[in-house]
Amino acid sequence: MRVFVMFDLPVLTASDRRAYRIFKKQLIKSGFIMMQESIYVKLCLNATAARVVADNVRSFKPPKGLVQLMIVTEKQFTSIDYIVGEVNDEYISSTDRMVIV
Q1: Which domains does the chain have, with CATH numbers?
Q2: How far apart are CA 36 and CA 38, in angstroms?
Q3: Hey, how many other C-beta atoms are within 10 angstroms of the C-beta on 27?
């Protein structure tokens, strides 16, 4: 399973920028990696773990802005169609149960 966090947060005031920085740092500390600007993704072993991760993100959400969560299966994740750009080899994109790096 993959957990996507997509967000659009205000950065007009100093307190907004602080909330934005804290939120991004918490995502990275929780194991998320940036897929695109304002889109972070984390690999989870199963649906239960994905729900725990989603609840964790809800616990440190910023007070303003839009934060969206989406949980997809590995098969759905590997079927992403790249219209423009290239596949980034930095991410492991496989439906195999065991990946040897």
Answers
A1: 2-78 (3.30.70.240)
A2: 6
A3: 21
Q: What is the pTM of this model?
A: 0.79
Closest Cα to residue 4, out of 26, 27, 25?
27
pLDDT at 84: 74
Rg (C-alpha) for the chain, rounded Å, is: 15
Q: Specify the pLDDT at position 99.
A: 55
Q: How far apart are CA 63 and CA 3, in angstroms?
A: 21
Q: Which residues pair with 33 in a beta bridge?
A: 41
CB 79 within 8 A of CB 34: no
The rounded percent of the chain whose pLDDT value lies above 70 is 83
Query: What are the structure tokens assigned to 35, written together?
Result: 């897929």
Q: Which residues contact 20 (CB under 8 A, 6 or more apart)?
A: 9, 10, 11, 62, 65
